[in-house]
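During the second half of the funding period, the structural biology subgroup turned its attention to how the target accommodates small molecules. The most pressing case was NDP, which had performed well in the primary screen but for which no bound structure existed. We therefore specified the complex as follows and requested a full 3D prediction, including the ligand pose.
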Amino acid sequence: MGVRVAVAGASGYAGGELLRLIAGHPGLDLVAATGDSSAGRAVTDVHPHLPAYADVTLRPTDVAELADAELVFLALPHGASAALSASLPAGTRIVDLGADHRLTDPAVWAKHYGGPYPGAWTYGLPELPGQRARIADSDRVAATGCYVVASTLPLAPLIAAGVAAPDDVVVVAASGTSGAGRSAAPHLLGSEVMNDVSAYKVGTHRHAPEIKQAAGARTLSFTPLLAPMPRGILATVTARPTGTTSADEVRQVLAEAYAGEPFVTLLPAGAWPHTSATYGSNACHLQVTVDGDSGRIVATSAIDNLGKGAAGQAVQCANLMLGLPETAGLTANGVAP
Ligand SMILES: NC(=O)C1=CN([C@@H]2O[C@H](COP(=O)(O)OP(=O)(O)OC[C@H]3O[C@@H](n4cnc5c(N)ncnc54)[C@H](OP(=O)(O)O)[C@@H]3O)[C@@H](O)[C@H]2O)C=CC1
Ligand SMILES: CC(=O)N[C@@H](CCC(=O)OP(=O)(O)O)C(=O)O
């Protein structure tokens, strides 16, 4: 018998990916899967790719349904996690995939989300310095936003090493449509997104302050793009160097930061990340160089937004919280073609 876990929001995209990972996890047993409008339906009705749950019915999302779990994953819309988690028993471990407990500054929360500030939990990005131990010591963890994972992993070490200036960072990141969740708004219909790439929420996206908080940037321009693919994020981060630097030096910073990390790979010099190579995995692929003309540092990263950007990252945090091997139930190997 493994650790008893529940997934709230199991009918959604992130919840479905959590169910898939839990089905293949050697140390976790699913005891409850909940939905909102889908409550009462079979899991395989909404996730026909998950026959492991042929006998499981989605229950309503309330405390009683989740009470038997030792650890609860919350994959709910922003704003729905705080009230539910406040009602769960104090001893229940929680990993929240939403944004409710990520931001440490109440004023930033008010500006980007509004409503009462729910408070910050331990931030769920194990690759940040010192964070792995903090997650392992925590009962409540706020998993990192998808664009934030893709942007922070290349950027944070460059700022921490003093090589990239924190006050001149530009991020342009393209996401697959599943990043917007399952409740497909008309602009996410296949007929609208195919043959199109477009920018949205330019300069106003709520992940900009989270990237600043996680990566240590002070001034940031963030432009998200919607790309015609179901999964994946490709982030391009450019930053002004603090002094003279070289491709070899910036590569060395990332190589040292991620030596031994099971899910972060600095690609060989000259190879640039592809989202397709991280599809279905918990991997993040990185590359960095210095633009010979502008002198700017240019780093690119690729993740699966539902993997390292959501469910994979959440399972990685849960493994740490439960004292399980950090990589249990996860893989850096993608699915191709
Ligand atoms: N998609 C992604 O790439 C990522 C998502 N996340 C975060 O994960 C969370 C879930 O996202 P995602 O799976 O994409 O979203 P979906 O829209 O695909 O799923 C939302 C889930 O929440 C349920 N739900 C909807 N409204 C309510 C409500 N008022 N109260 C309780 N449950 C409700 C839905 O139930 P039903 O369908 O039955 O109505 C569904 O199970 C969000 O906070 C999101 O920001 C984080 C990183 C990446
Ligand atoms: C393509 C698309 O619409 N993406 C979403 C990302 C949302 C998401 O997953 O948010 P968290 O990572 O904060 O939970 C957006 O831009 O709002």
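Two results from this model are relevant to the next phase. DSSP finds eleven helices and 14 strands in the chain. The domain at 147-305 is CATH 3.30.360.10 (Dihydrodipicolinate Reductase; domain 2).
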